[in-house]
Amino acid sequence: MKKVILCGAIALFGFLSANAQEVKFGVKAGVNLATIGGDVEDADGRTSFHVGGVAEIMISNKFSVQPELLYSAQGLQSEYTETFFGSDVKFEEKLKLDYINLPIMAKYYVTEGLSIEAGPQVGFLISAESEIEASSEGDSENQTQDVKDGFKSIDFAAGIGLGYKLDSGLNFSARYTLGLANIAEDAGDDFSIQNNVLQVSLGYMF
Predict the structure, then answer these.
(1) Which residues of 8-24 are buried (b: 16+ CB within 10 A; e: fewer)?
(2) What is the percent of the chain with per-residue pLDDT over 70, rounded to a whole number?
(3) Measured between alpha carbons, how far is 181 from 194 in angstroms, rounded to an integer?
(4) How confident is the model over 117-146, as pLDDT tens digits?
(5) Which pTM value belongs to this model?
(6) How far apart are CA 200 and CA 185, in angstroms?
(7) Strand intervals (E) in 39-153
(8) What is the CA angle 60-61-63, rounded to 5?
(9) Phi then psi for 16, rounded to 5 degrees?
């Protein structure tokens, strides 16, 4: 399945490049406000980051296609307090899901520099960790566990966003990526969770 997706992406990139008016390459990085939707309760988002490279393939003056290769840190966190033997213990749990994401965004320039974008994304899970910190009366204890086996190795999503590019090559963008696939491994039909991420990025096109 991975080979089919990668071969399809390479073929699409080659076709678009052959018909392109101009191709530019660049880099981007920014903040992730990640959450996990679906059958998850009492969880907050994980604030982290993304970084990677982009290519913008201009098909016309108004339309372009932008494939990207991004490292993206996602997941969730939650905080709660339990009482044991008369003492309050505060727990902070973090689920850290790190992906290599391959979005392919179709961009339409509404006016000079300002664009709207939408497109699919495939993600490859590279690590998954559960981190629990328990603290009480100044003492704390951490426990970290590899939970990669509990999650599917491939994720699918759809993104929509806005971007603004300056003549200098500096650009800004905001994108919301909605998870389309259940990322839980062997969870059954009664349990489904998805990656949802709001990204705010700063980039530069060479």
Answers:
(1) eeeeebeebeeebeeeb
(2) 89
(3) 6
(4) 999 999 999 999 999 988 877 777 889 999
(5) 0.86
(6) 29
(7) 44-58, 63-84, 87-111, 114-136, 139-146
(8) 60
(9) -65, -40
